[in-house]
Specification:
Length: 409
C-alpha cells in the first residue's frame, strides 16, 4: 500500500504545484550526521530530529524533550544582512501524539509518528523531501495519507551558494589546515635518512601512519578532527590517487599529503593537498609537478559565474595532455596518468555537489570548490596540488596561501 502511494506520488509530482495549499517541506534524521538537517536545527544533535516548513511559512523543529531548551537557545541564526532568521519553533514528540494509539518508546519511531501527526494536524496533504530523508519517516508520513515528492535539488542548491558566515568558516578551516600542512611538509623535508634511504625523525622511522597520527594530534589541539582520515602516500601506493599510504617514507620520492579536517566549532571543512620531496626529485617528477601546477592555473582561470564545471575540467585536461599525459581513469598505470576529475564543492561535507568534471553544470557566484589536478604512476609516484577557490563576480579567489613547490626545507 505504501509502495503504491509512493509510486503514484512520483508519477504525479511533476504536475504538482509546490505553492498549493497543504504543501510542506520536511527534513528529518540525525542532525549530527545530516548537514541539511543541521543547518535547519542549529545544533548537531545525535537524537532523532525533524524540521518542517508549513504551507504558511511557519517552521517547526521537533527534538527530544531533553534538548528543547538548548535548541531554543540556538533558534536565531545571524543572516548576511545581520537580520535575525528564525529557524523554527521548538517542540518535542509528545506535543504531537498520534491520533490512534500512543507514541512508541523507540525515539526514532516516536519522532516519525510525531512528524506524521503534526502534518495531519496542520492539514498538510503533500510533502516534499530531499535525498536524505530516512525510510522510517517516509513510511509514517505516507501511512498517514500524505503524499511525498522527492526534490533532487532540495538541500543541494541552497548549500552550493555560501553565505558570508559560511565563507568565513571555510576560510578559517583552510587556514588551520594550512598551518598543519606546513608543519607536516617541513617535518618530512628536514628528516634524516638511514642506510636504506628511509626517513628518520628523532630516531623514529617516519611512516605514512606516523605522519597521519602527527596530523591528528595537531588538528585536535586546534579543535579540529580528521573524521575521514588523511592521505600521506608515496610510490607505489600513490599510483592509486585515493590510497591513504602505508609504510616507511623515503628520500627522493614525491609524497602526497592530503588533509581534509573538520572544524568542530563550525562543522565546516578544510581541504588542502601538497606534494613534498625529501632531497632531490628526479626530472620526471619535476616535469609532472610543473604540468599539474600549470593545469591547476588553467582550470582556475575558467571559474567565473555562468561558466561550467565541465569547462574547468576540460581546461585542466587540455593542459595535462599538452604536457604529454593521458587520461586513464579507473586504471592504475606504471607511467604517470590522469585518473580523476578536477575538484568538488566543499562546505559542511568535504565532498559536495557539484563536481568539476565532465558534464558539470553552471558555476554560481558564492560557490566554494577544491581544485586538485594530479598525475599518478607506479614508477615515479604521484603529484597532486589542491587549493580551495571561491567563485566571485570578478572571477576565482584562491583561499590558500601556502606555496605549491616540492621543496619544503
Amino acid at each position: 500500500m505504501i509502495y503504491q502511494t509512493l509510486k503514484q506520488t512520483a508519477a504525479t509530482s511533476s504536475d504538482s504545484d509546490s505553492s498549493s495549499e497543504g504543501y510542506a517541506t520536511l527534513f528529518a534524521g540525525l542532525a549530527d550526521r545530516n548537514p541539511n538537517l543541521f543547518r535547519r536545527i542549529g545544533l548537531p544533535l545525535g537524537d532523532p530530529t525533524a524540521w518542517i516548513e508549513l504551507p504558511s511559512g511557519n517552521k517547526i523543529r521537533i527534538v527530544r524533550d531533553l534538548e528543547m531548551d538548548r535548541t531554543r537557545a540556538a533558534g536565531i541564526e545571524e543572516g548576511d544582512d545581520h537580520a535575525a532568521i528564525e529557524l523554527g519553533t521548538v517542540f518535542c514528540p509528545a506535543d504531537f501524539p498520534p491520533t490512534n494509539g500512543s507514541l512508541s518508546a523507540d525515539r526514532e519511531t516516536a519522532t516519525a509518528q510525531a512528524v506524521a501527526a503534526c502534518l495531519q494536524k496542520e492539514g498538510v496533504r503533500r510533502v516534499r523531501a530531499d535525498r536524505t530523508l530516512p525510510m522510517i519517516y517516509v513510511w509514517h508520513v505516507a501511512a498517514a495519507g500524505i503524499a511525498i515528492d522527492y526534490d533532487d535539488e532540495l538541500g543541494v542548491i541552497d548549500r552550493r551558494v555560501k553565505t558570508a558566515s559560511e565563507v568565513a568558516a571555510l576560510r578559517q578551516a583552510q587556514h588551520v589546515t594550512e598551518q598543519v600542512m606546513l608543519q607536516i611538509c617541513r617535518r618530512i623535508a628536514t628528516a634524516s635518512v638511514d642506510d636504506d634511504g628511509h626517513l628518520i625523525d628523532e630516531s623514529y622511522l617516519l611512516t605514512s601512519e606516523r605522519i597521519r597520527a602527527f596530523a591528528a594530534r595537531l588538528f585536535m589541539d586546534r579543535g579540529f578532527t580528521m573524521s575521514h582520515g588523511a592521505i600521506v602516500a608515496a610510490r607505489p601506493f600513490s599510483a592509486d590517487c585515493h590510497h591513504a599510504g602505508t609504510g616507511p617514507l623515503s628520500t627522493g620520492v614525491p609524497i602526497i599529503v592530503d588533509l581534509f579536517p573538520r572544524d568542530e566549532s563550525t562543522r565546516y571543512n578544510g581541504d588542502c593537498t601538497r606534494t613534498v620531496v625529501h632531497g632531490t626529485p628526479n626530472d620526471e617528477v619535476v616535469r609532472m609537478h610543473a604540468a599539474v601546477v600549470a593545469s591547476k592555473a588553467a582550470g582556475e582561470a575558467e571559474m567565473y559565474p555562468g561558466r561550467t564545471a565541465d569547462a574547468v575540467h576540460k581546461a585542466v585536461i587540455r593542459e595535462l595532455e599538452a604536457a604529454g599525459y593521458q587520461s586513464r581513469r579507473g586504471e592504475l598505470t606504471d607511467e604517470a596518468s590522469i585518473q580523476h576529475g578536477t575538484g568538488h564543492g566543499i562546505g559542511l561535507d568535504v565532498h559536495e555537489p557539484i563536481l568539476l568534471d565532465d558534464g558539470g553544470g553552471e558555476l554560481l557566484e558564492g560557490e566554494m570548490f577544491t581544485v586538485e589536478p594530479g598525475l599518478y604512476g607506479r614508477r615515479d609516484g604521484g603529484v597532486r596540488v589542491e587549493d580551495m577557490v571561491l567563485v566571485t563576480e570578478n572571477g576565482p579567489e584562491i583561499i590558500n596561501e601556502l606555496p605549491m613547490g616540492l621543496d619544503w626545507t
